[in-house]
Amino acid sequence: MDRRNAILDTAHASFVEHGYAGTTMSSIAAELGGSKGTLWNYFPSKEALFSAMLERATEAYREQLSQILDPCGVLALTLQRAAISLIVKITSAEGIALHRLIIAEGRRFPEMSRIFFELTRNATRKLLATFLADAMERGQLRRADPAEAARSLMSLLMAESYHELIMGRLEEAEPADLEREALVAVGLFLRAYAPEPEKQGREQAN
């Protein structure tokens, strides 16, 4: 494992276990067995380290989601696959741990909160909004603000299992429950954003 990834692994574990306030550059350097100066050669601040840790954690998932959001696929099936993927990611142990961290310390450290939302929720919402905008252009969905539509779908996914996990009522969500919640969310979304009848009729005629 290269040095940068070793630093990010250690930082991830520390942020989750000790929180943002409880994680320091000195403590990470000590755990890695190097000097603080060496750590700073890679990351000039704790904010930069937190940002890099999140970027690495989300980069692979954004690529996966991009592949799922195939504009040539059947809209309902594509959204169902994307929704299942999203809800599994959101409710994963890593996802819940990071959300708890932001809830606990975001008010004290607004920069941490900004980084988190920019690299996770906002980046995912942009991908989804681009896909939905294309579906609206093709008449598969009624015309609306794609960003708002993406926000609505993502909000529907953060439902029962997510809240029970965040509050500690569940240790782990059942895959069948997550799939059910994802399909319900997509069903509600498609009814809310169904194309106007005359537009839908023209598309079917073509």
UniProtKB/TrEMBL annotation:
DNA-binding region residue numbers: 24-43
PROSITE patterns reported in the protein's UniProt record: HTH_TETR_2
Gene Ontology molecular function terms on file: DNA-binding transcription factor activity; transcription cis-regulatory region binding
Pfam family name, one: TetR_N
Transmembrane stretches, start-end: none
Domain HTH tetR-type, chain residue ranges per copy: 1-61
Keyword Transcription in annotation: yes
Keyword list, A-Z: DNA-binding, Transcription, Transcription regulation
PANTHER family found in the cross-reference section: HTH-TYPE TRANSCRIPTIONAL REGULATOR RUTR (PTHR30055), NALC (PTHR30055:SF119)
Protein name, UniProt field: TetR/AcrR family transcriptional regulator
Source organism per UniProt: Sphingobium amiense
